[in-house]
Each structure stands twice: as structure tokens, then as C-alpha cells.
Predict the 3D structure of the following.
Amino acid sequence: MKMYKKHDIFIDLTSLLDVIMILLFMVMAVNTRRAGKLTGAQQEELQNALEVAESRLAAEEFLQEIIDEYSVSLKNTDDMTETLLIFNGNVESIPIPRKKKGSYEKQRHENWNMAVNSLKMDLEKSLQASLSDPDKLIYILFTYDEDSVYNSDFEDIHRVLDQYEVNDTENRVRYRLKNAKETKEIE
């Protein structure tokens, strides 16, 4: 029986890798030159698109200068253990009692009233600051999920926010409702 010697074979592929990289750069350079050659109609179309984008951006910036938005959101957690009232960066968390009678319900009612009063105070402060500028408009946007929030909670917040638009004699405050469920369906 004849024994063969095993030799380790080592192939150096570094130079092959260099060639592949050079070819890749050449392909990219050719494609870049092709993309750089636009016809007159394509250049005009691109110029028009840029002008439209710039005008929209200018309009958006103008609207941001004259409109202040105040967002309010009401939702319950997925496990229905607390109600979240979110406004102007603040989050008020009101526990939902498992027992519907006695001190649990009274404590929730007190916490809810404190959260609503906190919303009123913050909104009043924001509106005074915004309305001090005679050119400002204020949009109050109330987002809620009708499937998860209690109707009484919704009505409390809706009544508070609606009063600001009703009481505005200069027509500078606008109040709008947005159902979070409808927004998700659109997206």
C-alpha cells in the first residue's frame, strides 16, 4: 500500500479581489456618467419638481410661524389598568380600579379631576402665550381611540377643549377631533 503525502494547498485570492473591486468601480463610474446626462425635458421636469418642493417647504414654514398646535391624546393601556391623558409633553396616568365600588372609584374620580384640571391649566397657559401674538392661530387637536376609552372620559375632555373654541371671540382657536382608529386604517 502506497502512502500519499498530504500537502496543504493555499490559494491567495487577494489579487482577484483587487480586480473585482476595480471592475466594480468602473461599472459605477459608467452608470454615474449615464445618470448625469439628462435631456432638456428631463432637466426642465426636474427643475419644476424642485420649484414645487421649495414652494411647499416655504408654505409649511409660513404655516408653522402663524399656527400653534396643541395636541391632546386620550387612551387606555392595552391591559386596561390605566387611562393616559397626554398633552403638551405631559402624561397624566390615572389608574383604572378593578373594583367599581367604594374608595377605588372615589380615588379614580379624584385622580381624573386632577388630570383634567392640569390639562386646563396647561392649555390656558399655552393659549395665553400664543394669543399674545395677534397673527397667531391655535389648533387644538384631540386624538382618542373610541374602542378603548370610556365615554365619560372622552366627554369630559371634549367639553373642556370645545369650550376654548366656543369662547374664542376672535376666531383664532380651532378645535378638531381625530379618531386614532381611523388614522391607523388610513395608514
